[in-house]
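User: Please predict the structure of the protein below. I'd like the answer in structure-token form so I can feed it into my own downstream comparison script.

Assistant: Understood. Taking the following sequence of 88 residues as input:
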Amino acid sequence: MAERQPIPAPGLLARCDQPLISIILEEDGHEVVRYFTDEAEADAAIPDSATQEALNVAGAWSDLDWEDMESGLDRIRHESSPSPPISL
């Protein structure tokens, strides 16, 4: 009788000193998380459009007036009560 080979369990094997990189991607209309232990492989899995999308988000507030934003944040900071101290 032939010896049965064990069926490997699905998973990811990584050394303790390796990084674990997760990237959220869309595949077949669903968001999935792909994991990598190699930065070059992780970089290659990122779509070219992702960089442009990130830059678009960074520039989304470029039309706002910084002085108005700063004074509004300062006003909110002074009008808000401080949080009570945390006791351990």
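That's the full token string. DSSP finds three helices and two strands in the chain.
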